[in-house]
């Protein structure tokens, strides 16, 4: 792609935040769920996209699902029927403004974030949730969150924080949702132990072996087209590489705790979509009756903060 052919403009009054480091660029869309809209670099007349870039139509629609990556807070993935019981009290998120039958990814990805400090290579985004009857604000625990996003010569770094502002314990999940370019020659490499199998919804049913587990560990890696995936993997070593061998390039996502699980979304019916996500829990963790090591998730005490960070390190492959 010619460098002068790539441009991305937000609607009037909703500017993008641009980070720059040499030939590398990151575009942030605070008004679209605190999302990353693009991460790319120029090489001569070419533009190399490390994440699937947003489009102006998706920006105008405020659709985080059309961004390059977006934060998952205060929980990740689905909650069955948008309901759960915590500390003996029922929680109903079915009227949360979420159009999905199972509550999905919390509410921070559907709300605007505020820009804090910003320099050429670093920006901080902030989000605060107060209790309200407004649609999209039915999560019954007040919290605040931030993202510190840093671009350097080797990587894009994202550090997230989540703080419980309620006067009682709050269940939580945290994650990020990057979309990668998907071609006929896209491969994913990672060490994992098992995969959560699921229903068509999809919701998890059981942990077991799967062909993708061994493929991920193989020298070639897992082809993005090999299976119809929307599944969680356990036992990963918090590092996964997405490679495009015919383009002689790769990007490695490395994460720290509490990102103890990895999601791969590579649907057969959407052959252009590929997500490889660092998350703190599997879908519907709060309703699953299994050991915490198998499902993740956690609880923040009043005033307690958790930090979670990951990086996308790019590589040229000979």
Task: Provide structural commentary.
This protein has 318 residues and is mainly beta. It has a domain at 187-290. The chain is built from 3 helices and 26 strands. The chain has helices at 56-60, 211-217, 292-295, and strands spanning 17-21, 24-29, 35-43, 46-49, 71-72, 78-79, 83-86, 89-92, 103-104, 114-118, 122-129, 143-151, 155-164, 170-172, 175-176, 187-190, 194-198, 204-208, 222-223, 229-234, 239-244, 249-255, 261-266, 275-279, 298-300, 305-316. A 9-stranded antiparallel sheet has the order 10-11-12-13-26-22-21-16-19. A 5-stranded antiparallel sheet has the order 18-17-20-23-24, with no helix packed on it. Strands 1-2-3-4 form a 4-stranded antiparallel sheet, with no helix packed on it. A hairpin with a 4-residue loop joins strand 21 and strand 22. The chain is globular and about 60 Å long. It starts with 16 loop residues before the first strand and ends with a strand. Residues 1-5 have low confidence and may be disordered. InterPro entries: Aldose_1/G6P_1-epimerase, Gal_mutarotase_sf_dom, GH-type_carb-bd. It comes from Candidatus Burkholderia verschuerenii. This is Aldose epimerase family protein. GO terms for molecular function: carbohydrate binding; isomerase activity.
> End-to-end distance, in Å?
21 Å
Listing every helix as H and every strand as E from the N terminus to the C terminus, the arrangement reads EEEEHEEEEEEEEEEEEEEHEEEEEEHEE
Specify the number of helices. Answer: 3
Spatial strand order of the main sheet: 10-11-12-13-26-22-21-16-19
**Overall mean pLDDT score?**
93
Beta strands, count: 26
Which class best fits the helix and strand makeup?
mainly beta
Portion of residues within helices: under 10%
What oligomeric state is this?
single chain
Low-confidence segments, given as residue ranges, are 1-5
């Amino acid at each position: 792609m010619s460098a002068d052919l790539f441009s991305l403009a937000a609607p009037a009054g909703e500017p993008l935040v641009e980070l720059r480091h040499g030939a590398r660029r990151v575009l942030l869309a605070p008004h679209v769920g605190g999302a990353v809209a693009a991460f790319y670099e120029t090489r001569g007349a070419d533009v190399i996209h490390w994440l699937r870039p947003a489009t102006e139509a998706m920006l105008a629609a405020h659709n985080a699902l059309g961004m390059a990556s977006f934060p998952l807070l205060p929980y990740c993935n689905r909650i069955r029927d948008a309901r759960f019981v915590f500390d003996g009290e029922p929680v109903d998120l079915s009227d949360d403004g979420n159009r999905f039958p199972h509550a999905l990814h919390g509410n921070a990805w559907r709300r605007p974030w505020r820009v804090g400090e910003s320099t050429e290579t670093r920006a901080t985004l902030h989000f605060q949730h107060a209790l309200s009857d407004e649609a999209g604000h039915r999560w019954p625990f007040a919290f605040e969150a931030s993202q510190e996003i840093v671009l350097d010569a080797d990587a894009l770094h994202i550090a997230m924080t989540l703080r419980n502002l309620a006067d009682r314990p709050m269940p939580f999940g945290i994650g990020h949702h990057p979309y990668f370019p998907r071609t006929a020659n896209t491969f994913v490499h990672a060490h994992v132990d098992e995969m959560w199998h699921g229903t068509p919804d999809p919701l998890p049913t059981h942990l077991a072996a799967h062909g993708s587990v061994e493929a991920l560990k193989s020298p070639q890696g897992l082809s993005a087209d090999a299976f119809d995936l929307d599944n969680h993997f356990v036992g990963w070593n918090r590092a996964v590489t997405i490679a495009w061998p015919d383009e002689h390039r790769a990007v490695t996502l490395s994460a720290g705790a509490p990102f103890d699980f990895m999601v791969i979304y590579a649907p057969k019916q959407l052959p252009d979509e590929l997500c490889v996500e660092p998350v703190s829990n599997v879908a519907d963790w709060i309703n699953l009756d299994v050991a915490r090591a198998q499902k993740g998730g956690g609880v923040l005490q009043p005033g307690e903060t958790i930090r979670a960070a990951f990086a996308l390190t790019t590589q040229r492959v000979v």
